[in-house]
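Weekly structure sync - notes
Attendees: PM, LS, DV (DV joined late)
Agenda: review two folding runs queued last week.

Item 1: First target. Sequence and structure tokens pasted below for the record.
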Amino acid sequence: MEDAQRRWQQDRDRMHDTLRRQKREMAEDEQWLEKEERLLDPMGPEEAAGSGSPDAEVEHAPPEKPPRHSAQSVGMTLRDLIHSVDELMPTIHESVRTEIEGTQKLLNNDMAELISKMRLAQQNAITSLKEECKKQMLAAAHTLAIDGKNMLDAVDQARVRANLAKPKPEDP
């Protein structure tokens, strides 16, 4: 009998330790996510910060869905970017052209990955996987942004080599 009580107490203590660890990890994940969101959104958070405790607001808020218009906006911008690069391609040296074409394919794959992660986040908006899905979506968005910048850098370098770069006009 005492042995059963001791094992029950040990299991109970282990469960409490696990819960404390998970709460701590969840708080760390929240901090990381907030930091990543701030890095990805130069305009700052959309909602006003401050009033009430954040936990109380989250508990009573409806399930969050990633904004669909943001993905569409990113997709449209990416499409316009790739189209403008396509217009430059005939003027760019062949050796650089293959690099840029590869970067374009990478960007298309990055966008597909972002859409996939966004759908996953929407499907898990009310599950315990919500935060993990958000992190994955942010990571995919970050990868897309970095690869987009790399393509722009490659295009800029190609334009400079082809003497197509125009200096920015100075303000009078």
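Item 2: Second target, run right after the first with the same settings.
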Amino acid sequence: MLPASANSHLPVAQESVVPLTGPAYYEARRAHWLTPKQSPSDIDQPLLPEHIQSQQKRLENLLNDPDKARSDAGWREGIRSVWQGLSTGRRLIYRLPLSVVVKITLAAWIRDKTWPIGQVAPEPDDELPNK
């Protein structure tokens, strides 16, 4: 066991000792992952410029209509440019909600036939039951 400061990815608690391996280490990491992080208030976050907000809203509306999202016109209206940035590892200029990123990814995968239309992901069979 090492002092908590040796595991810099875990919070440092006074007189806390974090195990190096095994179930106790997993439980310490899990507790850290499940602890809600303090997020800055809406007041502290800068507002997006109005034109960016309208672009994001247009993109969200496009993605919420599956037929439009799968069409060539929908692809050209904005899905393609965001997908190209995401798939090449470029950093987004403005934040996108994860739900939008997932829909963009799904639209791109359907377009390039990585994901069949109408396919539903199976339930995982390797998850531990909730305690």
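Discussion on item 2: Helices lie at 22-34, 50-64, 66-70, 72-87, 98-111.
Action: LS to circulate a short write-up before next sync.
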